[in-house]
Design brief:
heterodimer, A: mainly beta, seven-stranded mixed β-sheet, globular, B: mainly beta, six-stranded mixed β-sheet, five-stranded antiparallel β-sheet, 11 strands
């Protein structure tokens, strides 16, 4: 079984819709992250959480929100999706050694 | 802030050796990571350097010079399956990793 899972794996939605992407991990890590990846722009950090009570904005948090429901769960929401949020989204986790382990990704298309 | 530079694209021949460079500028440096990412897939961890020198792991080696803000990933005996993007990432202070934009490597016959 995968250590870091993401649902859904693919999603097509319309402008203005609210979308939630979910991430679960069985690695027992405290730290979790959400990234988006666009061609030519690399991985950009949206939000991160170092433990259940900790939420921090990353490089590109505008238009996104997160919830850390438990140590193992970290969800990303797009309150009102827009086309330039079309991207590949990755969740990642890390322990104290800071090596990050990535989920399989969610491909989101906003029409 | 942090700045990480790596070449955008490289091409190499099957069976050859290729070196992918990464330069960085940061304060409070803790370590440098290399990840491999095949198209449409998740990045996967390759190596971690915290001290100066060469770390060898099979066909892949990674080098770090902290004084020069420089690292490279060396891939030997290239195989077609090594065609992928290679991401350099720097860890500083108590902040998340900062990733470079990646180097897309194409291995040709």
């Amino acid at each position: 079984d995968a250590d870091v899972t993401q649902t859904p794996r693919n999603r097509i939605t319309k402008t203005g819709k609210r979308i939630m992407l979910e991430c679960s991990q069985t690695k027992g890590h405290d730290r979790m992250y959400w990234y988006r990846q666009d061609p030519g722009l690399g991985l950009r950090l949206i939000y991160y959480s170092f433990d259940v009570k900790d939420i921090n904005k990353g490089e590109i948090s505008d238009g996104y929100s997160v919830s850390r429901q438990a140590q193992a769960k970290f969800s990303l929401s797009l309150e009102s999706a827009i086309p330039n949020q079309t991207a590949l989204y990755f969740c990642a986790t890390s322990g104290r050694l800071n090596t990050q382990y990535f989920g399989p990704g969610t491909r989101l298309t906003v029409l | 802030g942090q700045n990480i530079d790596q070449p955008t694209e490289m091409t190499a021949t099957e069976g050859a050796i290729v070196q992918i460079n990464c330069t960085y500028q940061t304060s409070g440096f803790n370590g440098l990571f290399w990840y491999q990412q095949h198209a449409g897939e998740a990045p996967t961890f390759l190596s971690y350097n915290v001290l100066d020198g060469l770390e060898e792991k099979g066909r892949f080696s990674s080098f770090l010079s902290r004084s020069k803000g420089y690292s490279y990933l060396l891939l030997k005996e290239l195989q077609m399956k090594d065609s992928a993007s290679y991401l350099c990432a720097v860890h500083s202070g108590n902040t998340p990793l900062v990733f470079g934009k990646g180097t897309r490597l194409s291995v040709i016959a």
